[in-house]
Design brief:
single chain; alpha+beta; two-stranded antiparallel ribbon; 2 strands
């Protein structure tokens, strides 16, 4: 699959997640899609890959932890504020359905 095809598939997955769970904004859906597809699941790597400020990704992670939580933090680096996360059961349900 070419890079353009990969990007198109990722964006289609983001759109599908937003349709499935209307509470998600595009960034939150992108984080869920990334976690479900095996992309790096740490905030700093994802912010670089998505071309976004790390603070925006951190805010989206915070929002995804609100009830019902779709992700859980598995590790934190207080010095860099980097957070590693994984999907919760609800997050898996939303991303797989």
């Amino acid at each position: 699959m070419s890079e353009d095809e990969e990007i198109a598939a990722f964006l289609a997955e983001v759109d599908r997640l937003i349709a499935r769970a209307p509470r998600l904004d595009p960034l939150q859906a992108a984080l869920l899609a990334a976690a479900a597809s095996g992309l790096p699941s740490d905030s700093r790597s994802l912010s670089r890959r998505l071309g976004l400020e790390h603070a925006l990704v951190l805010r989206a992670i915070q929002q995804l932890q609100q009830a019902p939580p779709l992700i859980r933090i598995t590790r934190e680096d207080p010095r860099t504020m980097r957070r590693w996360f994984e999907l919760t059961e609800e997050g898996i349900f939303v991303s797989e359905a």
